[in-house]
Structure formats: structure tokens, C-alpha cells
Amino acid sequence: MLDSLVRIWTLVVKDFTQLRRDWLMIGFVTLVPLGELLLIGWATSSHIEHLPTAVLDADRSAESRALVTALENARTFDISHFPDSPTAVNDLVDRGTVVVGLTVPEGFGAGLTNPAAAPLQIQVILDGADPVAAETAQRSIEGVVATLVQRAAARQAGIVDRGEVIRADVRVRYNEDLSEANYTIPSEMGIMLMTIVLMIASMGIARERELGTLEQIMVTPMRPIEIIIGKAIPAVIVAYVNFIGMLAITVLVFHVPFRGSLPLLLAMALFYLFVELGWGLVVSAFSATQQQAILLAFLIMMPEMIFSGFAVPIENMPRALELASNLVPIKHWLEIVRAVMLKGVGLETVWPNLLALTGLGAAIMTASVLVLRKRLSAV
Amino acid sequence: MSRVSLLRIASRLSATALRIGTSVKRTFAIVRKEILHVARNKVTLFLAVVSPAFMMFVLMYSFTVDIKEVPVSILDNDHSTLSQRYASDLLSTGDVTMPRWARDYEHLERQLERGEIKAAVVIPFGFMDDVVAGREARVQVLIDGTAPSAANHATAHIIGFTQSMAVDVLRRDLAQMGYESLNIQPIDLRIRTWYNPTLRAIVGYAPALLAVVMGMPGTMAAMTLAREKEHGTLEQLTATPIGRGELLVGKLIPYLLSGLVSVLLCTALGVYWFRVPFRGDFFIFMLLSSCFLLATLSIGLLMSVFIKTQQAAQLLAPLVFTIPAFFLSGIFIPLSSMNPLVRTMTYALPSTHYVAIARQLFLKGWGLAQLWPYAVALLATGLLLTTLAIALFQKKLT
Questions:
Q1: Would you tell me which residues 228-267 of chain B have a C-beta closer than 8 angstroms to some C-beta of chain A?
Q2: C-alpha distance from B247 to closest chain A C-alpha (Å)
Q3: Vertex A59: Cα angle to A53 and A64 (nearest 5)
């Protein structure tokens, strides 16, 4: 047992020596992910706002002006253009200068409180090539118009003082100001950790195999399982150091609240990294060259990026994908991170995710070790 | 001008032509070698050409989303006819479902904590009395803010529903007060979404995601010199008459070609399987894709000059190609919403330009007349970085 540990330790030292000789590599491994998290976190923590907007107010009444002001206050829009004809509005959208073109027709203000008038129309053109912008704009405009109608109705009924008829008192829990950063930055952190572990772990053995040095290691007293463990440890250490740096950035720079227990999260991170490590070893087992390893690793990376929920919430995915997401460690990890950091809950709530991670880890590790062992003895 | 000097010029020209000819020949020898290397191993060939299409499939499939119902919980402390109507009407809108009634406030909070529900509505005692008496009635809405976009969606829905119910109540009030009906015209909000009328998310995302998966050839390019260095074959190559420039250009061309095949596969997948419209010109798209590939491949080559091991290349490649392309190129966050400094930086990424190109060409049918600035930016990046890579490579080897 002790011998075995010593042998594993030798391999770890060897791998770190190789890493150290390549000073560029050390810089990459530690600084690039941290710098990138800063940049990406900064870029993606903004709300969807300042969408370039063109408004054609053909009515020029108090009501239409109120509408335009309400839009301006919504902050979703940057009213940058005031075209003078419908064709000009179309042109601006067509050229991609604005993503929202809104037209208030003549007679809007007068018609609002006159039941005999023709039906009122507000025309909105959205640039559907950018679905995020289009959807956000649509929701925001609908909200502004609904408020306008309710106000006009209340004013007419002379019940201004009464306040709203029914007021929905919205209280947001866990992320009170609905900061995007609180959601996206843990996603990004998870993705980058996954990338680091996957990339280091997947190449370790493929590299030795490609360079022919695997045979040299095989003739030493090292047993296959020791080689696997020895190759796995550097990946986990590098990723764990990165994890601590990224966590510090997340909390100190981006002010994502940390309400739960830090030791709990630090312990959970190990589980997550071990499962990702298992995937890296699977890649290692199946690739003959490093080129193949990277291609395979990318194939695993993609689903993980998807199931980070950054782009699409998992609940909105097709049923098959929603089920498949349970096989992807990042999904469970992010549920744990969000629960511990934002909700401040502990094991009593996140145990199903922990159980899933453990199960996944055990299955993937066993499979990869079995395959690797066979392939290693066949060298 | 004398005949002699004419002859001299002619001979010099032919010598140059010959030199270019042999240079091209040598470059293609490298191209052939690299293609052979990738094609010899069927697994590598398959992975290199088909993996972007596979990634594209998984990515696009996840965007065939339907906004499903938001799970909510309702706690009715009023038990009045109006509160019951509020609850049942809210549920009948179809956008929300209720897995379970909440027994009490604590139960509700626990449901929210465990993530069983995303929103909760509490109708307080006295709700109906307030409405009847003409006082402001309140309902409390609790939202799980951990996922802001879902939270916004739920909030907008519940507030919208409450407002329309409020207008109904107003109408009834006014009718009781003797007014026939409220003299308020409903506003017909005519929202038209151009280029993507049903606002299917996938239509907008599929072209843009090409920029993410096409980081693959760049990754391969980043590894290629490292592989020669690791195997010690780079010294052998430099001992041949092949120049450094020829070597690098020869390494670039195969990945440009395999990249174009992958673009073709991905586009076919998007258009024929996911029914994404393709309104532009196919050849222009391939031309612009070549510009993009040239730019990313030149980044890969530049990395490759410095990197000693394939492992380093592999570790760095996703951080250089895939992750920035995914997060920073305007696919999910419109560039106009980004901080101006970050926005400027994103324009340094080839993927930002390619996202713009692919979206406008696929959906708006734009051609070179509108897209040329992107093409120029990509070409300039590609040529500049390739030249830089060659210059630095030359220096490193001597």
C-alpha cells in the first residue's frame, strides 16, 4: 500500500516537473482562466438594455409622448432615431441600425378615450435575427402598454387616489435585484473548471501513449491503477487551485452573495471535479493520439456548456434533453452552487444533487478505470 | 530600352515565377503531408470533419425550446369567491402550472427553497373585502431570483394577469356606478418580428452557433506544430528546402479545407433538419466562411509557434476559441447591451464578426454589399497574424 502511494507520488512529481519546464503552460493554466472569468463575467453581467430603437410618433399628443417617455424610462431601449416616415422606420431595421422600430399612429391620443374611434394600433417591428433582443423588447413593450392602459382607465374612472385596484407585490428571493451576474457567473465558473479538468485529464495518458513513453512507464513496477491515479491527481490539483481563485473573483469582484457554508461548497467542489475527471479519463481511454483526445474532449464539453443553463434554462429544453441533463455533472454542480451561495441552504436541501454526483462519479470512474486498465495492459 | 535590359527583366521575371512555382509546390507537399496525417487515421479524420456538425446538432437541439409552464404555488388565505377566481383564472392561462397547493407560508418557502416551484402567489386575508370596498387590494408574489430570465418571465406573466383582472374589476365597478362600460379602447399591439416571424429561438441561434463550433479547425491548427515539436519531426522538416512560410501556409490550408466541409455539413444540418431559413447566397457564405476560418486558423498558427506541447495547445484552445465565442460574440448578450470597453474588445474576436455575418446572411439575405466590412476585418486579421506567425517562427528557429 505504502509502495503504491510512493509510486503514485513519483508520477505526480514527474507530471508537475513536465508542467513546470513549460513556463508558458503554468501561466496559461493559472492566469488565463481567471482573466477570462473576469472579462466574461464583466461582459455578461449586464442586463439586456440599451437596445437601439427608432420611434416614429405620428400623433404628437400628450398620450403618445407619455408612451415614448415610458419606453425611455424602461431602460431596455435607447431611442436613438426619430424617423419621419414608416418607410424610414423599415429602412432602419432593415439596415440593422436599430433592432426595434415603433410607430404610434395619428389619432392615438384622441382615440384612447373615445370608444367610437377606430381600433388603436401601435406598430412594432423587431429584428428577429437576435432572439434575445427581440424577446426582451417584446416583453418590455407589452408591459409599458399594459400599464398605460390601466392608468388611462383608472384616470377616467376618477379613482386615481385609490392606487392600483389589485397590486401585485413582487418580492424576489435569493437574488433580490435580479442580477444577471448572480446567475451567469457561477455558470461560467462551472464551465471553465470543467474545461480545465477535462483537458488536462484527457491528455495525460494519450500523450504518453503517443510519445511511446507509456511503454517505459509500463515496464516500471507501476500498476495500471496507479498510473491512472497518478495522472488524475495533477488535473484535480490544478483545477482546485483555479476553483478557489474563481470563487474569490465571483464573491469579491462580482459581489455574488455567499449565504451558505463555505466548507460545504469546498467539499462539494471535490465531488464535482472528480466526476469531470472521470469524463477526462474516459476520453483518455478511447483516444490513441492527443489529436483524438482533444476532439473527443470537445464533444463532451459542448453538452456541458449547454446544460450549464447559461443559454437556455434546462426546464425549457425538450423532454429528452431535460432527462439527459441529469447525466451531466455540471447541472448538479450548478444547482448545488446556486443553492448554497444564493439560497444559503445546506446538505438537507442539496443532498439529491450530491447523491447524483456521487452515483455519476462512481459509474464513470469505474467504467473508465476498467477500460483504461485493459488498454494499458494491452500496450 | 535596350534589348539586353528587356531580356534581363524577362529572365528575372521567369526566375521569380519559377521560385513561386517551386514554393507553391513545396507548400502543397506540406498540405499533402498534413492531409495524409489526419486522413490516415480514420478516427481522427471522422472526428475532425464531423465533430463540428455533431456539436452543432446538440447545441441546436437544445434551442428547440418551448417556454414551458412555470411551476407556481398559490396560498389562498382569503378563501373568498374572488380569491378563488383569481387562483383558478391564473392557472387557466396555461403558462403556469401548480404542482401542489401550499398548506401554509412555511410550506411555500420550503417549496421555493427546494426549487419545486419558481414563483408563489399569496392572497392575503381580506383580499375580496378590499376590492369590494374600493381599497387597494394586494397579492404577494414571491419569485425565485436565482435564474433571472425565468424570474422575469414569471413576474411579467403574473403582473400582466393581475392587471388584466384589475381592469375587469374596474369595468364591473364602473358598471355598478352606472357607466355602460369603460370608455377605454384596448390597444392592439401589432408586433411583427422580421426575419423570424414566429420568434423561434433556433432560427436566430443556429447561424450564430456556427462561430462556436468552427473553433475546432483553429484548435487543430494550434496543435499541429506542437505535434511536430514533440515528435522531433520539426527539425527534420526544417532541414528540407521547405521555407518557414511555406511550412506554415501548408499547415493552414488543410484545416481551411476541412473547416469548409464542416461549415457545409453544419449549414445543411441547420437548413434541412432544423428548418432554419437560408436567404443569402451560398457561395458568398462559403467565401465569408473562408475569411473567418483564415482568421481563426491564423490565431491557431500563432499559438502554435509558441506552444511546445499538444497538451498546452489543448488546454489553451477552448479558452481562446470556444469559450469567448460562446460568451462574448453577441450570441446571447446583444453587443449594444455590453459595456463599451468590453464591446470594443469583442470586436477583436473573429467569432463576433462571423456571428454578424451568419445571422444577416442566413436571415436577412445580405450579400457582400452590406457584409464587406466584416470580410475586410477578418481578412486583415488573418493576413496580419499569419505574417506575424511566419516572422516569429523564422526568428525562433534560427
A1: 230-231
A2: 19
A3: 60
- The predicted pLDDT at position B178 comes to 55
pLDDT digits (tens, 9 = 90+) for B309-337: 887 788 888 888 988 998 888 888 888 88
Measured distance CA(B353)–CA(B362) in Å, rounded = 14
Cell of B291: 475569411
Within 8 A of B312 by CB-CB distance, chain A residues are: 22, 24-25, 28
Radius of gyration of chain B (CA): 31
B338 contact A CB<8A: yes
Q: What is the DSSP string of A82-106?
A: --SSHHHHHHHHHTTS-SEEEEE-T
Rounded to the nearest angstrom, the gap between the alpha carbon of residue B325 and the centroid of all alpha carbons in its chain is 7
Q: Is A293 helix (H, G, I), strand (E, B) or coil?
A: helix
What is the interface pTM, i.e. ipTM, of the complex? 0.79
| A172 or B142, greater pLDDT | B142
Q: Is there a contact between B195 and A191 if contact means CB atoms under 8 Å apart?
A: no
Which three cell numbers, joined as nine digits, stand for B265?
455539413
Which runs of consecutive H residues, i.e. helices, occur in A157-261? 180-211, 213-219, 224-248
B20: exposed, middle or buried (Cβ count in 10 Å: 0-12, 13-18, 19+) = exposed
Note the Cα B238 to chain centre separation in Å. 40
Helices A2-21 & A23-44, crossing angle to 10 degrees?
80
- Chain A residue with minimum CA distance to B308: A22
Give B21 to chain A, closest Cα distance, Å.
Answer: 32
- pLDDT tens per residue across span B43-58: 777 777 888 888 888 8
Is residue B182 scored above 60 in pLDDT?
no
- In the numeric block, the cell 484545416 is attached to B255
Predicted pLDDT of residue B316: 83
* Rounded mean pLDDT, B119-127: 88
Q: Are strands B137-144 and B119-123 parallel, antiparallel or unpaired?
A: antiparallel
Residue ranges of alpha helices (H) inside B240-349 are 244-268, 282-306, 310-317, 323-328, 340-346
pLDDT in tens, B253-296: 889 998 999 999 999 999 999 888 899 899 999 999 999 999 99
- Residue A327 near residue A360, CB atoms below 8 Å: yes
Query: Is B128 within 8 Å of chain A by CB?
Result: no
Q: In whole angstroms, what is the distance from residue A182 CA to residue B151 CA?
A: 13
Residues B209, A60: Cα–Cα separation, whole Å: 43
* B315–A24 CB contact, under 8 Å: no
For residue A139, the distance in angstroms to the closest alpha carbon of chain B comes to 8
The C-alpha of A25 sits at a distance from chain B's nearest C-alpha, in angstroms, of 6
Quickly state the pLDDT bin for A165 (edges 50, 70, 90).
Answer: low
